[in-house]
Amino acid sequence: MKIILDCDPGHDDAIAIMLAGSRKDIEILGICTEAGNQTVEKTTNNALNVIQYLGLKVPVYKGCDRPLLRNALICPEIHGESGLDGVDFPTYPQKAEKKHAVNFLCEELLKHEAVTVITTGAMTNLALAIRLEPKIVEHIEKIVLMGGSMGAGNISPAAEFNILADAEAAAICFNCGCPVYMVGLDVTRQCMVLPSVVERMEKVHNRASDLFCGLMKFFNKTQKEFFGLPGGPLHDPLTVASLLDSSLVTFKKMFVSVDHNEGQSYGRTNCDITGNLKQKENVYVATAVDVEAYWDLIEKCLKAY
Ligand code: RIB
Ligand code: CA
Fold this sequence. Notes:
Elements: E1 2-7, H1 11-21, E2 27-33, H2 40-54, E3 60-62, H3 76-79, H4 101-111, E4 115-119, H5 124-132, E5 140-146, H6 161-165, H7 167-174, E6 180-183, H8 185-188, E7 192-193, H9 195-202, H10 207-227, E8 232-233, H11 237-244, E9 249-254, E10 256-258, E11 269-271, E12 283-289, H12 291-303
Alpha-D-ribofuranose is lined by residues 8, 10, 12-13, 36-37, 75, 120-121, 146, 154, 160-162, 235-236.
């Protein structure tokens, strides 16, 4: 499976990189970054640190520093000042590639057939690439995104963070014509890294589990302070996990529209669960998750390093 991972690391993004990088059956063509959990300079630096810590050979492309229309939204209250607080990295040699992430997406996708594009941040880079080079859509097997919600949001009552970060970009991607798989809060919020999960992963006792546990201890602390949750939801790696084990996440195809009107519902993903609107179904929406199977997969991933 060939993938491009577009992300904003970010604690859970880092684990998504770790999960994809642990698999011999996945070829990561490149990692793209954008502003989100922190500024694009910091998320790029974080992506570079994570791959070099894990010994992964993957090029990293810095992308957009802000959404299409709005000011950048960053989230230090959850991910800290660095965007990956809780762990320290040495100074590594690999730097970001010179090419912009949007140009990389346009050029790289045209070179391959059937690439899976995974987004775990705002969808700005991908939306711009689709507008710049519309033919890339034919080269995308599917888009698997962490974002949205059938129910409540997390950054506003209506919206999930990644979609609210750039709802216009999400609307472009959701309607680009290739299969879109939305892994939203309805399932990711069931996957909480409770202290028992951290204890289990600590037992793996290698570099990968050190990184996982260091990150998750910080993430759990801020999730508790900010949302009152007993553990941080491990949102982003569930995109990758859904590709590795098709029984792990259940999807239902339905019509989804992204609200990008000004107002309280900006960023909401309106999911026509019952099909009442009689509109063409455009998105496979995650409706259920096997949480225990997810932890088994994460543990297997850590052991692979
Ligand atoms: O709402 C969850 C998403 O927002 C995740 O991608 C996480 O990294 C945060 O940025
Ligand atoms: Ca993210």
